[in-house]
Amino acid sequence: MTSNQEIADILYQIAxxxxxxxxxxxxxxxxxxxxxxxxWSEEVxxxxxxxxxxxxxxxxxxxxxxxxxxxxxNGRSIYLxxxxxxxxxxxxxxxxxxxxxxxxxxxxYKRLKVTDLTSLEKAARAGKIAILEHFGEAMQEKILSGIQxxxxxxxxxxxxxxxxxxxxxxxxxxxxxxxSNIAYAGSLRRKSSTIGDIDILVTTKNPKKLMSxxxxxxxxxxxxxxxxxxxxxxxxxxPHADLRVLEPAQWGSALQYFTGSKNHNIALRRIAISKGYxxxxxxxxxxxxxxxxxxxxxxxxxxxxxxxxPELREDNGEIKAAQEGRLPKLIxxxxxxxxxxxxxxxxxxxxxxxxxxxAAASHGLEYIALTDHTEKLKxxxxxxxxRFEKQAEELRGLSKRLGGFQILHGxxxxxxxxxxxxxxxxxxxxxxxxxxxxxxxxxxxxxxATRRLVTAISNPHIDIIGHPTGRLIGKRPGYEIELDAVIDxxxxxxxxxxxxxxxxxxxxxxxxxxxxxxxxxxxSISSDSHATDSFRFLEFGACxxxxxxxxxxxxxNTLSADKVREWASKHN
Length: 572
Ligand code: DGT
Ligand code: CA
Ligand code: CA
Ligand code: ZN
Description:
- The chain is of the alpha/beta class.
- It contains 24 helices and 17 strands.
- The longest helix has 18 residues, at 136-153.
């Protein structure tokens, strides 16, 4: 199934590239169609199957053809690929740099012959970008740091990109079957925020058939290596996927080994040695006798410890905790009862409040906090106090239509340079919940960014700090913060820090989540949804929380709506 978001993403990309080619009107049409697809509550793939695409607002014959093509090719658009090839620049490379979109890329190409990261860097280093109109010194600096970042990130996928690909690979292989065991391992199984390559393990009696199904997949751009026990393909978006065929008797030890992390494995092997064993991907051996290898559980048990969930296997103290029987009981996605950060068309969302509530309910949630942007975030159509009053009226009208589902009224305000909110107290005190984020002035040094956050945390109206470091994975590192000071402030005032679950944010990062958990500061796991299909992002936030050793009690939105209200009202 190609998701609405995948389809919309491709339509947005097509619009961007058309804009570079100076095609009049068309980019707007594609963006309109992308917005429709993004907010459509039914699967667009189902709409396409019954021939109903052209009934969607903004979708004409041409765009319908492209959507059908994507669905036919499992989310791949030959049209987009051709468009990319027809351009004189490497759009994927350039757009990965924070701040570079089609308009700027086109100017840079026309004026400076910038076509890829190398020529971009050369132009920036020579100071040629700073003197262009609409660019300037600050933009040039931003581009230079963006290049470093894009280089490091290149070749790694977001968890949200890798997961559906891995699932499709597994489905394809199962179909070619029969298989007795199949799983993804590596960083994907540990649910890292980025994935270098996808590692799939399988046991089967017919490796040949599976290997050719694997290398022949639509997802494969080319075959890098193919053999009887291991094949590697290059995926369409660049990174690789490996398929390994294993002996059934070796399953547990191989799954353990290839799940990693490398450091976890090294530490575990040391313990095996100290107990007179030898641990490898082939088994856990005492002399020549294989003591445990069928399941991972057996291995951890034989080594004298509790089973360690993959998300914890980073050699961050999990082995000692497992030996002492004090591993956390990790939070599950299903423990989340609400979502405390969502947007509607009142600000920059693509769906109405009712549509968002219905989508959240169909995701199994009991409540959301509606937290549209505030006044100063002009680009996101931030609300004035007056408009928030109007919004409150709409909410009162809606409440009867929601059954038991609850909407807490809130906002996502902007923390200004001095740490104060961009909303008056008289408005803030009316909200059930207030999320506060830094959107404006991201360039602060560590001390200043920390001061802003700490000041915000001490404001009695503010309950949660949204995406606390401002990072965008693969695009910008975010501002640095003194985490200890921020945690101290949260502890003192009883506030929470957010895990923003957008796949390119995952902010707080898991290592910072771990510090919160250690210090007894609670987090909220929020989707920051701007569209109805974004509640699924909560899965990634939950993974990130698990990697940070979160239990249910550490997460605010495992509470009922009433308990959340009660918690938030304590601060006022
Ligand atoms: P990635 O692909 O960069 O996101 O990260 P991983 O963890 O998936 O790493 P990958 O694909 O290179 O290898 C998969 C697993 O295989 C890794 O997590 C642990 C294991 N492994 C790979 N190389 C070594 C090694 O040299 N020593 C040990 N002990 N384990 C290794
Ligand atoms: Ca890997
Ligand atoms: Ca690998
Ligand atoms: Zn937001």
